């Protein structure tokens, strides 16, 4: 009886508090910034995909090789990301199902299994890049071999995934804290590195491709921006959070979702631009050929001091760990959505870690593994992008919330551009030049 009484008076969990505040806001009974923050979460989690170690590698190369010239590419890539993540969030809120579940319900079975298989491979390729990137950071920090650092990174990632057992809110807050570490680290980097702000503003809005290598790098930045796994994930995160009771509440949730997407991915875009600006200030004049994360770290200490190198590692480790967590969540959602099958998170973590261990144990260079993972993502990307545009355009599925004509035009144009650039990236990887 005492146990029953203690359970009855137990304080509400963070997830329960968040749901309560969202309900109160939807009913119009509560207002204010604190209540509005209860709506934040799904886009923050999804935004990690745009700050993963693969972004570190391309942004360092862009800043070191071309200074501020390719900042506009990062800005354009971020706008495309905002559009597709908002569509993914809308799909989950309106239909109550995620992208993988809708594919299973709408497509012939052979296509469903093909999409599932390719999406699982993409999730593993994503996790390889994120996991290896985090392990590189741990290796540089603790002076450990990369394989040993991967074990440390895997243990930390598994520990963070345990927060999911307490509902969606604790893990959202953990991811938000890691985003904060990345953002604050790069804000501090900008205070250390020399920056010409007038040139930064100019090249953010002035398109320029100096040479064929800059074109290749631009293709890498834009073509690998929208991640297959996070298109699946975002639709599921909004689906499983708070269910609207009526159309008025659904409209409010969509409004706040769009605001959150703009805010969260806006922060991600600024962090990516800060990476380019820092790399430009640190490396462009004397070390324009820097192409790997390890070389960038070793070069930062003599150029800008140990504080800059330490901040770089803090951001890299936070990026690798958080994006590995999100990658595992996405893989679980993809499996459950396509085939209705769920496995324990520990087993899922081991499955997604296995390719990374195999690649590194085989002796493949870590940075090369990052690049090749982007190629795999390029192959897997068309299906979820096309499916997302198709589903959100259907009146029978979305009703009054189907894409408007202008949104459809922008989505089709964005998908076409990203898929074309991914095709260029694949051809360049095969040795063909333009």
Number of strands: 0
CATH architecture: Up-down Bundle
Tell me the radius of gyration.
21 Å
Helical proportion, percent range: over 70%
- Give the CATH topology: Amino acid/polyamine transporter I
The pLDDT mean sits at 85
The number of helical segments is 21
- Please give the largest β-sheet: none
Q: Which consecutive residue ranges, at least 5 long each, have pLDDT under 50?
A: none
CATH H level, superfamily name: Amino acid/polyamine transporter I
CATH class: Mainly Alpha
Order of helices and strands: HHHHHHHHHHHHHHHHHHHHH
Query: What is the total number of structural domains?
Result: 1
- Shape, principal axes of CA atoms: globular
Strand content: under 5%
Helix/strand structural class: mainly alpha
End-to-end separation: 76 Å
